[in-house]
Amino acid sequence: MQTAIERAVEAKPKRKENINWVRMKKMKMLYFMMAIPMVMLFIFHYIPMYGVLIAFKNFSPGLGIWDSPWNNFEHFKRLFSDFLFIRALQNTIVISLLKLLIVFPAPIIFAILLNEIKSEKFKKVSQSISYLPHFMSWVILSAMVIEVFSPQRGIINYIITFFGGDAINFMSDKASFIPILILTDMWKELGWGAIIYLATITSIDPQLYEAAEIDGAGRFRKMIHVTLPSIMPMVIIMFILRLGAVLNAGFDQILNLYNPLVYEVADIIDTYVYRSGLEQFQFDYATAVGLFKNVVGIALILTANAIIRRKSEHGIW
Amino acid sequence: MKKYAKVLSTAALASALFLTACSNNEATSGKKVDIASLPDAGDYSDIIELNLSGSVTKGKAEDGNYVQKRLEEQFNVKIINTKVDTWNKDQVNLMVASGDLPDTFAFNGEPKTAKELFDAGLIRTIPKEMLEKYAPRYMKMLEENPPGLDMNKSAGSDNEYLSLIGLYSHVDGLTWTPTFRLDWLEKLGIDPPGEIKQVGPSGAREKIYYTDKAYTLEEVEEIFKAFTFDDPDGNGKNDTYAISPYNDQMHWAVSLMGAFGLAPDYNFIEDDQLVVTEISKKYKEYLKLLAKWYDMGLIDPEFTTLDIKKSWEKYKQGKIGYYTAQSSYLANDDWTKGRAPQNLVENPNSTAKILATAPEIGKDGKQGVASFIPVGNLADAFYVSKDVTDEELARILQIFDYINLDNDARWTLYGEVGVHSDWEGEPEKSALIVRPEYAAEEGNSGFWAYNFRTYDKERVQWFTSEYTMNLRKEFFARDDVKENMLIRPYKWDVLNKTKMKEMQLRYKGNLKTIVDEFRMKAIVGEIDIDKEWDKYVENWLNNGGKDVLAEMDKADKVSDLMK
After folding, report:
1. Residue among A63, A152, A261 whose CB faces B521 most closely
2. What is the nearest CA distance from A19 to chain B, expressed in angstroms?
3. How many C-beta neighbours within 10 Å does residue A78 have?
């Protein structure tokens, strides 16, 4: 049975615009449904972009954005002459790269391992347990983390002192704070992050596994030569997107866990801006920092995408 | 990240709204008011619509509430309730950034100075002539509290005020004083420094004592050692600490700093130069004492991860011997429930006892705590929006003068006694408690919904228990105590002569970071205070401190301002 589009194509094969128009007309409800989020996107994500101008101005609410005076990049000069910002930038990059290196692969490995579990019941229970921390805010989790690592009540220090060692104040120790950040972030997001890879794994053609079996591949070989290459496009997309957020090192987590003794290694751009900009109603300064972060993020996404495109057929665009 | 993203997106969204915001404060600022053309005081013949917000409001006043109806009738106004939570930073951010402000408003805290708000075109000025005509009680209050008449004036004008100001009689006197575990002192055979009295006969107050005498710092050190090492709780374990500070505020240290003549963030003269506490030599000595105590094991090492609320919980476990307290804490007033140190004795089965003493005495006989307000007892700011006309202002001022300064307007805060509220104890000598069927604040009653934080002594009584009042009379706000133990800054700008406040706000974030880091590292012994001190001071000065100090130096001496 011919569809309306096919009939339209047959009727006027040379008028491509007509085909598109007929297609759109047929799917007008879908287009209408799509229009709602598009309008919202435009209103809430594109129109406010005008506000980015205040990053280059001494912003005064009474004058408005356009009439506020330009300030000759004053906010950016202040940023890069402030040793606390430079330190925060360094910390952000270090923490973010460590998370990229350690936390990013964890859900991939977890998803692959989960896929290998034969007992469906055990698999579902494991999955559910791994999701739970994702749904708790860092305000709650930080209290738990601080208790676990407490020098007086924490289980870690209990074990250390049980074996004759001295209690360590982990949360105030520069050497242990970053590993705790990485580990707790991994613990919180491991299960949730694995969902997308599990979904990709379920869409792998079973014939590929059968073919591998015929070729004599065991479970490990199938994992390496079938599962991993099949989810690689998704891994690459997630990697590029994560790279774009490299200057977001985990504001909620760090704000709730850090203290002045570990500022030296844990103060990131977001916590710095929170203390120095937003708390003092310095919208223009905070916007300048936000703009800097976004420019770096976009540059990283574009570069990574271009490199990966050149080396393989995968990528976002 | 969500929190930050929310704030940032609020700012960005607000930015879009500025497109429509325009600077038009000239119409209502600095212009000569034709006072004769305005209605007489008490002439409410024309109905006026006003969008009002109080100063501790959460935007929860229900439309048509009790206070609203009475005010509308009395002043012939139509009140539009403001649905903004003035305690919520995101909401206040958006309100300020968009310029969409109610006719009257005040912030919880002071994120922007009055001058900044005026320069940003958000507020109008208030002519002195109008205040004299429509707010005589307010003007009388300013006259009685120097330098009230000269505060908050618009730059270059002697007759225009940028905001209205509040009288803070409730914080008159000492705000904090140290407490010790009295049951531990007794077990260890350590005598109190003077005659002790019970705060009250019941409600856990029978376990709280006070004296107006103090221990010296040397004595405190000996007590701290005994608290830590002599098993004061008698459980046979070495599990107690003398003191458990917290890392987000400095209240735990106010009286200890006072023993060095110091008050956080205040300035004074040292070696003929104006310095702020945090870069002074005395502060260095204070830090060295704390570092010594930490090294001796007297300070709970976990303090680095405790904020004030966690610290209250920790104190409640009964392993800490020292904590600072306000008078209302010692009186165990309702609003202080759960806070340390009185949370330890709240449980009827608790055998613990607490002793509040006068602030510790330092080497040079120094003793005291920071005054809550740097100069006098006037503080806070109540603003009038830029779009308010002179006619509207005339009505606003009359409402303001009545509800905040005429004590017949008690009903705006507590309704009618016997109908909406009752005295907690002896009438007129204890606090007023709103009956449960009415909202204690805003809601269906509208209590506190339109008021400003300004309280004379009579008003203070309305929300203060008789036990707190007694403590204030006997010690915290006694004249000789105020005179000898209140630490005020040497110089402060309350007359808008300098850019001190702007500089403080601009550099506050960075300077606080520098100070917090150094203090914590110094106390836990991570750095050698003597070796690192000069570098720290230089760092502080080079990151905005120099500008802050320079502006402070231009300000008036506090002693002159208070004459």
Report:
1. A261
2. 40
3. 15
- A187-191, B15-19, B319-323: least confident range: B15-19
- For B341-370, how does the pLDDT look when each residue is reduced to its tens digit (9 = 90+)? 999 999 999 999 999 999 999 998 999 999
With an 8 Å Cβ cutoff, is B128 touching chain A?
Answer: no
Quick: pLDDT tens for B367-424. Answer: 999 999 999 899 989 999 999 999 999 999 999 999 999 999 999 999 999 999 999 8
Residue of A nearest to B386 (CA): A62
Is residue B474 assigned to a domain? no
Same structural domain, B319 and B408: no
The string of pLDDT tens digits covering residues B491-533 is 999 888 888 888 887 888 899 999 999 999 999 999 999 999 9
Which of B434, B455, B476 is the last residue in one of the domains?
Answer: B455
Residues 282-321 of B with CB under 8 A from A: 301-302, 304-305
Classify residue A16 by burial, with Cβ atoms within 10 Å: 0-12, 13-18, 19+. Answer: exposed
Determine, yes or no, domain membership for B531: yes
B280 & B222 share domain: yes
We report the CATH number of the domain holding residue B340 as: 3.40.190.10
B69-100 burial, b at 16+ Cβ within 10 Å, e below that, comes to: eebeeebebebebbebbbeebebbbbbbbbbb
- For residue B110, the model assigns a pLDDT of 62
ipTM value: 0.81
Domain count, chain B: 3
Domain that holds residue B510: 492-561
pTM: 0.84
Among B339, B370, B401, which residue terminates a domain?
B370
Q: Which residue of A has its CA nearest to B24?
A: A62
Whether B60 and B103 share a structural domain: yes
Helices (H), A215-262: 219-222, 228-244, 251-257
Give me the domains of chain A, ranges plus CATH numbers: 4-46 (no CATH), 81-311 (1.10.3720.10)
d(CA B553, CA B563): 19
On whether both B249 and B276 belong to a single domain, the answer is: yes
User: Which 8-state DSSP code applies to residue B338?
Assistant: T
Residue A270, chain B, CB below 8 Å: the answer is yes
> B489 preceded by cis ω (within 30°)?
no
Average pLDDT, rounded, for chain B: 90
